[in-house]
Amino acid sequence: MKKQFINLSIFFVLAIGVLGYFWHWGLWLYAGAIPIILLGILDMNQKKQTLKRNFPVVGRMRWWAEWMRPKVYQYFIESDVSGAPYNRLSRNVIYQRAKKVTDSTPFGTQLNVYETGYEWLNHSINPLPLDHGEHDPRVMVGGPDCKQPYSASIFNISAMSFGSLSQNAIMALNGGAKLGGFAHNTGEGGLSPYHLKPGGDIIWQIGTGYFGCRHTDGTFNYDAFAERAALPNVKMIEIKLSQGAKPGHGGILPAAKVTEEIAKIRLVEKGKDVLSPSYHKAFGTPLEMIAFIKKLRELSGGKPIGFKLCIGQKGQFVAICKAMIKTGVMPDFITVDGGEGGTGAAPIEFSNSVGMPLREGLAFVYDTLHGFGIKKHIRIIASGKVHTGFDLVKNFALGADMCNGARAMLMAVGCIQALECNTNTCPTGVATQNPDLWKGLDVNDKKVRVCNYHHETVKAAVELMSAAGIKHSDQLHRSHIYRRVSANQIQTYAEMYPYLLKGSLLEAPYPKGWELEVMHSTEESFDSMVKPV
For position 265, what pLDDT does the model report? Predict the structure, then answer.
């Protein structure tokens, strides 16, 4: 079809050009106008690329600019390991997998292996065959008190709310989850009809605003929670304490995105900024938080209940673990978000300078749970710029059981990083409530791309594990991953983040470096740490 169009355009240009030469110069204008009109019609009627559909002809400038960019310059500025994780090389992997085209590369390694920060997998001389039967590894989520455990994929869609994203983007993500058999986190904006319509598995996130389960005064509504938690699509419930992009700061939905529909779903006022509180009103201490988890599990009929946080003050997480030990009540999962995580809107100081990065946070959470002897009951989910099979493997090695991805899933839907998420003018219809833009995003096409991306990324992770002689992600450990820490020194993750002995935090003497957090934290309060005098 495309070749036919190009040939037809060339024919029109030549034919009208010849007539113009012998007849009238004005025909030269038609020689240019007709192909452009035809090109615009073609763009408006295709469904593969939302940018072209929303901005016929003009939208093609993005690809023209990429094509004209000097290749050598492009390689050198985008292939360094220390640069932004979502450089063009990374984006190409996501787009190629979403479109299910080859993602192999010529001429070997495209990273500087001698640069500080370069990481690699310690492979086996006796790898497993790729057909060993673990092409879709699953993880069972549900502790001793869980009555409806959930068999989860090792890779799922991270928290992104309806409101921040358009209805078509939400339906494409959930439709992809339905096709691929993985889960879709709602984000703190709550359950919407667009999360439920495609039929994909849902992780319902409850943030400090309690959207979807709140009273008009903003307090938690237990009856509304019980009603929605019983929905068959809802497989797990996640309490959001903080997120990596802006830990210690409430969620932000700009007024331009607060439509009448969103206002009704969230029980807020239309056309005004929605600013979630920075803390929960339903609990104020570690013991109260654990009691809240227990109550939600009961009201949901025994579904897995967990919480999400970006690690800040270590003693506060230790205090939560002490509350678990004291009560015998534990969450079914904990989502660890890295300080490098993304969002559609956040103050720049919070995005850049608050919150522990994922690698350190993940190792800390695993070691703390293991040190208190309770890890076996709790699954850990890693979230924070996860987009390749190697990202999955690295997180599994540090202690994660599963991973969530947001940014990469958005790119599979069609995000081009226009950086207009907070302005309601996203040109690809992903992060906007403007119907003139989001209607251009074709759900049926994009949900297949989401499914493709998930499948190919999990497949890549399985192949990497096979290369290391590993059948399942729970067999990975920190000695499998190496990192260059200087020009002439390398370390394994096991050397960088030494394991704690099981139960070593239950009684003194505590491991070196852990004394302050363990001794000065209490299940009675989040604010027990005091400055020495």
Answer: 84
Residue 230: CB atoms within 10 A of its CB come to 12
Q: What is the pLDDT of residue 1?
A: 47
Question: Is there a contact between 391 and 408 (Cβ–Cβ < 8 Å)?
Answer: no
What pLDDT was estimated at residue 75?
40
> How many Å is the maximal CA-CA distance in the chain?
98
Question: How far apart, in whole angstroms, are the C-alpha atoms of residue 337 and residue 356?
Answer: 9
What is the band of 80 on the pLDDT scale with cuts at 50, 70, 90? very low
Alpha-carbon gap, residue 447 to 172, rounded angstroms: 4
Cα separation, 56 vs 37, whole angstroms: 9
The Cα 401–Cα 375 span in angstroms is: 11
Give the pLDDT confidence score for residue 88 in this predicted structure.
57
Distance between CA atoms of residues 229 and 213, nearest Å: 10
Cβ-count burial 373-404 (b if 16+ within 10 Å, e if not): bbbebbbbbbbbbbbbbbbbbbbbbbbbbbbb
By CB atoms closer than 10 A (0-12, 13-18, 19+), residue 368 is buried
**0.90 surpassed by pTM:** no
Q: Can you say whether residue 212 is alpha, beta or left, with left for phi > 0 and alpha for psi between -120 and 50 degrees?
A: left
Terminal C-alpha separation, the chain: 77
Distance, CA of 48 to CA of 60 (rounded, Å):
13
- Dig out the tokens for 41 from the structure: 């019609």
Q: Spell out the alpha helix ranges (H) of 259-310.
A: 260-266, 286-299
What is the C-alpha to C-alpha distance for residues 62 and 95, in angstroms, rounded to an integer? Answer: 15
Question: For 307, phi and psi rounded to 5 degrees?
Answer: -140, 160
Q: Which domains does the chain carry?
A: 2-65 (no CATH), 138-467 (3.20.20.70)
E runs forming strands in 86-130: 119-121
* Helix residue spans in 163-217 (DSSP H): 167-180, 193-196
